Amino acid sequence: MAPRARTRWFILLLLLPAVLVVSCARLPVKRPDILSGPSAVPMPEKLIPSAYRPALDEAEKALAEGDYLRGLRLYEAVLEKEPPAVVSSWGRFRAGQILVALDRPREAVPFFEYVVEHIQGEAFEKEAVVSLVRLYRRLEVPERIMTLAEDLRSRNVPAVFLVRLFQACLLYTSDAADEE
């Protein structure tokens, strides 16, 4: 083999791993679909002020397309504008869901905690309670579940929130028993 041909093969062998890495990085990663399934909750459209609808619709579109990082950035951009309470809670709820889907549970906890601290009786807030219970279990801090239950009870939130909390505890317990 001529030296020139060897040089070409050598360069080709050096570039091949880089090409593989770049092409693999562009492959879509299958993520849990947060827009369907048991944790799917529709946006409380009637409560969202019209000024925030385009930004939230764009974020939801990104999620529907499976672009969770873009959806997260769009929700964070909405939250930076210090929106009204329902928009703030909805944005944090959805950001928490996205972070869980991206396997970043520790980052998701404060988003769900915010929603639970500001409960106004919306459907997505019930799911935030369930998500928080799941995260506390996943992160192995179950004692925080009792703290959460006491907090909800002391704030006189609607009973349905406590029911969802205990349903989540029971569901998680039965899921854990099934795995064993």
Describe the protein.
The protein is mostly helical and 180 residues long. It contains 8 helices and no strands. The chain is flat, with a radius of gyration of 22 Å.
Key descriptive features of the protein:
180 residues, mainly alpha, 8 helices, 71% helix, flat
Number of continuous helical runs = 8
Secondary structure class reads mainly alpha
Give the helix level as a range of percent. over 70%
Order of helices and strands: HHHHHHHH
Morphology: flat
Total number of β-strand segments? 0
Distance between the termini: 60 Å
Share of residues in strands: under 5%
What is the mean pLDDT? Answer: 79
Largest sheet: none
Query: Which consecutive residue ranges, at least 5 long each, have pLDDT under 50?
Result: 12-30
The value of Rg in angstroms is 22 Å
Short description:
The protein has 180 residues and is mainly alpha-helical.
Task: Record the SSE blueprint.
Elements lengths: L2 H23 L27 H12 L3 H13 L4 H17 L3 H13 L5 H16 L4 H12 L4 H21 L1
